[in-house]
Specification:
alpha+beta, 3 helices, globular, 6 strands, 4-stranded antiparallel beta sheet, single chain, about 35% strand, two-stranded antiparallel ribbon
Length: about 130
């Protein structure tokens, strides 16, 4: 039986380790744009497209990014649960953060990932991991 994996353009080849699969799939979600495909227009897991579609609506940003990322990861893991939250940066209220709380189960083992994206209303996105927050 084949195992779900993520193709990489590195010497790794196919990422099968849960943490690597998540990292590559999340990077695809961050970097992909809806214009990359005419055939699948509107169905590419693309954070830039989500931000464009939900400009000014934090609730819609939370819900749409949660659904699309969960759908994007579902084929790679046995069970996927994504929660999202939009908040002001505690250090600079003029900047927003989109936080992803992800639990992905692989062969009965749950893996937790927390990622935050900052400056979502500007052209520059800052991605960082959050520990205990």
């Amino acid at each position: 039986m084949s195992k779900p994996c993520v193709p990489t353009l590195t010497t790794i080849g196919w990422a099968t380790d849960p943490a690597l699969k998540f990292d590559y799939a999340f990077a695809d979600f961050m970097a992909s744009t809806d214009s990359q495909s005419i055939e699948y227009h509107g169905s590419i897991a693309s954070l830039p497209w989500i931000i464009q579609k939900t400009t000014g609506d934090r609730n819609a940003l939370e819900k749409l990014s949660q659904k699309i990322l969960e759908d994007h990861l579902t084929g790679l893991f046995d069970v996927v649960n994504v929660r999202t939250k939009v908040r002001e940066n505690p250090k600079d209220e003029s900047k927003l953060q989109l936080i992803f709380y992800i639990t992905a189960t692989h062969e009965g083992v749950a893996h937790n990932f927390v990622k935050a994206i900052e400056n979502i209303d500007s052209k520059t996105l800052l991605l960082f991991d959050i520990n205990n927050g």
